[in-house]
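In this supplementary section we document a worked example of the pipeline. Step one takes a protein sequence of length 90 as its only input; no multiple sequence alignment statistics are reported here. Step two produces a three-dimensional model, which step three serialises into structure tokens for compact storage. The input and output of this example are shown verbatim.
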Amino acid sequence: MFEENEVAIVETVRDETAERMIEYLRSMKAIEDSMEPYKEQKRELREEYKQQGWLSKEEISMAVRAYRMMRSDIDIDQFVDVFNSIKGAR
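The serialised model returned by step three reads:
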């Protein structure tokens, strides 16, 4: 089986990996915590637009989808072709 020094090396690697995981999770939590106020602000903005009657839930959703597509640099003509192909196949 393993010699004593090999077991110690394996345990050291496991300890280092566990420490890195804990470090990663702490950093991720800090980032998520710092993002929360912005997420809340985004929810409030959406609610305000719905309450004021400026946009419906569907209009907000469509605008967000269009914005994300623009950010992804999607070829709209290609997208429409694929969309129409899928729509026609139903």
